[in-house]
Input
Amino acid sequence: MNKNSFKKTELALYYLVVFFILREWLIPIMELTGTGYMEYILLFIAVSLVISLFRIHFILSWLIKGLFIAWFIAFVYGQVWAFSAEGIQFLANDLIRNLYSLMHGDWIGITDPFRTLLFFILIWMLIYLTHYWITVRMNIFYFLALTVFFVAALDTFTDYDGSFAIVRIMLLGLVMIASLFLKRLVHHSNVQIKWPTYIKMILPSIGLIVIVMVIAFFLPKAAPQWPDPMPYIKSATGQGQAEVDEGGIAKVGYGENDTRLGGSFVADDTVVFLAEVQSKQYWRIETKDIYTSKGWENSGNYGDMVIQPEENIVHSLPVGPKENSKTAAIQMLYEHDFVVQPYGLQSYHLDEEYSNLQFLMNGSTEKIKPYLDGNEVFLMDYQVEYSKPEYSYSTLKNPTEQIDPAIKERYLQLPDTLPARVRELAADIVEDKQTPYDQARAIELYFRQNGFRYDTDNIAVPAENQDYVDQFLFETKVGYCDNFSTSMVVLLRSIGIPARWVKGFAGGDMIDNNGATSTYQVTNNDAHSWVEAYIPNVGWVNFEPTIGFNNSRAIDYDLPTDTPEEDELTIDEDTKPDEVVEENEKRPQSTGQNSNIFGNVFARFTKNKVVWLIVALLIASVGGILYKTRRRWLPNVYGMLYKRKSFMETPFETSYLRLLKLLEVKGFKRKKGQTLESYALEIDRYFETVHMTKLTKCYERVIYAKNAENIDMALMKESWEYLINQVIG
Amino acid sequence: MQNKIALIIENIEKVMIGKREVAELSIVALLAEGHVLLEDVPGVGKTMMVKALAKSVSADFKRIQFTPDLLPSDVLGVSIYNPKTLQFEFRPGPIVGNIILADEINRTSPKTQSALLESMEEATVTIEGETLQITKPFFVMATQNPIEYEGTYPLPEAQLDRFLLKIRMGYPSAQDEVEVLRRVFSSERMGDLSPVISLEELLDLQEEVRNVYVEDSVKSYIVQLARATRNVSEVYLGVSPRASIALMRASQAYAKMQDRDYVKPDDVQYLAPFVFGHRIILKPEARYEGITTEEILNRIIDKSIIPIKRYAES
Output
């Protein structure tokens, strides 16, 4: 076996190990960010390593990698063949758009395909770096240390379990370090060795590593000797103490199945519909009545009600006076089987062409679906007339009505497993409140004052024998609308106030204003849940327990004694919906409804900030180390680059300037105002040669004399190479 | 030709001990067709230096000893009525020669000083409408005592501009001074010096110096230094473009002495203090603080950007 093929094989083995170490980097990134297509990214790594192994000319190598990236992006994001006309169109458009965003500092405008491109470039650079570490430095320690740090940090701070990854990395890394040490030894002593010798020399180290690993694996391990620092760090960084179950991460949006609530979810700003209204509204879709200790279900069939367009709808909710009627125009952008209901719903209006369309209201959930000739249809455009109910303050404060037992029975349901402390808490909260309305208000406001926090990240899922509400109220205190609304319903029911859970959309963002009306854009992020409680004499009243959300409820302050100046004063009890906080409006969609995998590959990158913090730290520390040690490695890189080009074919001037550059990165900086001659003397004194002066004399003639004499290139080559070797060696 | 220069230096060194640099610089001025001002306290060998140089060249050597009562006509010459021809005849003064030693130039009145300096600049003598061209080579070496001493008429700064170089002699080192004492009675005396270079050879050398190549990047380096002197806060007046020309000419001569046919930034750097030093006028406050033009020039050189590529229009 000749020397060359020995080296190739050796390098191939190193690359194989590098491949597996890089895989360990990729796994947690993929897992934590929910990125798909790991096999293709691994393929990219493999291809890059093979290219590097066979020292394929860089033009060809760039071409291959570039085409691969182009193919991947086009395939994953555009689902087109990259090398077709539309594929090229897709890639070009995306590139232009992102370059535009970059130029304008619009970092948010950068699209996922472009981020993927950057990710690939990062991998590319990483591979180049490992190549350098192996072939030039012959030392992989930094890389291994970084890998261990990366995995350990992810294991500590995130859900990723790196216990076996660490073992694998250590095994691969130690073998690598041992064999590179051997390689260094061989290299420095300038001897050639053959396979049998090589194996003989490497086997002891590998054997030792394996033995140590095996022993370590089977030895009993001591429990942690100091307390887990994580809770402290987490609380210091404001991550609360939420126990995160492996419940998976859902995507926000409007969904059907609410039987198991909890878990984190990610943002989705797909626009669901546009509403042209006079003021911001909550859009009700359906209610649920049975709490199962894990989520919500429907109690059964209460019969459907047919509603004709234009017909006045009989609804469980109170309606405001006719003269206050307003009309909202809804334009659905996303096919859903329901129509939205503002509070005070009166009737739906449709265009002529839909004259024979009907609506069906589910008696149980109050969900209204459009039907055409007995079939469910998607209604994309409609108007809805409503008059917001006004609740008389005096009536709210003076409950006289005996609530219908049917309502009581249906809306006071609670699971038998509900822990007693929930009921006790409810009783505590309303202790000094007399009327149902005041009690409901107290519960609604309870969440804003007692250490509860709104978050969509790291939200717990109740364990098998745990109650969803109980967990939220007493353990985590961190959650989103479902946690707050469900808890409020349960608390209300436990003190005897009939309540139900309502799903729908919050008001959305105003995108246009044309005088009297404004257009609001409602996205999946606006999917929301809240509470309706039955208040005697008044009926169903909506409540908003979720922190950061406000739903206006018109209260008619008609108390005669309290308002001497005015007979009647109507104000919204709560402030207008808050634009800022509503950006957080989200609720998870439990079953994958048309989940857009492709668009989502990198959407989750915005989550898991810790991962990115660690990645950024790693990159920064690699950069820092490289910068600090540049005197040691940069000259070698330059030297290698320069040596590869033939001295005889390069103009002498270029070669000389390269030598200057090399000396400079090595730390021999030519001072300002220092002439080449005196610099050359300095260099020669350091290296104890005369080569630099020789080269410099020649170079001076080239640049300062009238006609450069013929340069004795052979002589210069000797001096030049001598110096380059001195600098590198 | 090269060894001719070496011969001159060798010749001078026979009588001047440890003053090789001064000798070299004097030859630089001679080759660059400029004039030299030697400045230092009396007794350090200024006159000896000039005489040694003059003796080494087989040229017409004249010496003018300046005194307060010296008149311009004593320098330039006079027209005298010749009773035989019944005409005025021009009798050229000591200025008409090849190598002139103007000793203690600051001891004479400004009137006489300016008469000398004007002839130096134009290499002509004008008396009563008659102009006489002084034959080449024409090389003036003036000496002066530093102006702090009494009974002197300091040369105005504008006049100083006429000198290509201003050189300080400086005291010899202890070792050299011992050698000086030893030689007082030795065989090598001024009178024994013989010329080592003919007038024609000197003129040829001057011609060659004129042809020493100055690459544009080096020219721009000279300009860089000259311009820098105009932007120093301690400097009242920086150097003129004439000084830039002087520096280039001197650098050419210096390059020639190094047996090079092109100028390097090294030459420029070396000569800049000698060429620019006496052309920079410091602000009074800087002078009181003891800042010298030399320090300022060194500072400028240390900050300058050496051209390490051929000149490219940018």
